[in-house]
Amino acid sequence: MYDVHAFVTPIGQMDAVVEHTFLFADVVGYTAFTERVGDDAAADVAVAFQAAAQHVAEQCGCEVIKNLGDAVMIRGDDATRVLALALRLRRELDDEGWCPPLRMGVHSGSAVQRGADWYGATVNVAARVTEAAAPGEILLSLTTRERIVRAGMTIADRGARSFKNVAAPLALFAAAA
To answer: Are 28 and 135 in contact (CB under 8 A)?
Structure first.
């Protein structure tokens, strides 16, 4: 039996609220891709994608929190850097041509760390925003848009969207370089 109290941080010991920006990047149509090219080739693409994400994240001062098969979860302290990472990752993988299109979602806010992982509404919303992105698209929330410096970026309004278990619709924006 697990003792939940062993994992709960006492209220007096909680950290001050710090903002983080989370990026989820997902290979679009990975199941169909696997069916088409076979397990070995698809696994090689997933591993190469994870390695590319790790490389770009490190260069942008961000961290890959975890690999999720054909997806990655990345965290950064600065929304502009995280968005620049997303734009660069998409551009580099598109230029190389071996990776199917990505869909990416970015959201900023507070979150809590437990071990090597991150939890909270911000993480959950970032994942939901990713699911709403079209192939090749980088979607960001209004919260993230308000925190970025848009040097060299185009931000297009995609309207508000409702998400499962999110109280209010979220304004979404698509980013391009």
So the answer is: yes
Domains of the chain, earliest start first: 19-176 (3.30.70.1230)
- Convert the pLDDT of each residue in 38-57 to its tens digit: 999 999 999 999 999 999 99
Backbone angles phi, psi at 38, to 5 degrees: 95, 160
Mean pLDDT across the chain: 91
Q: Please report which confidence band the pLDDT of residue 167 belongs to, taking 50, 70 and 90 as the band edges.
A: confident
- The answer to whether 83 touches 140, Cβ cutoff 8 Å, is yes
Lay out the sheet containing 19-27: strands in order across. Answer: 63-67, 71-76, 19-27, 102-110, 138-141, 170-176, 154-161
- Helix (H) and strand (E) counts for the chain? 5, 9
HSE, side-chain direction, 13 A CA sphere, residue 40:
0
CA distance 54 to 90: 13
Tokens in use for 58? 């490190």
Residue 145: count other Cβ atoms within 10 Å of its Cβ.
19
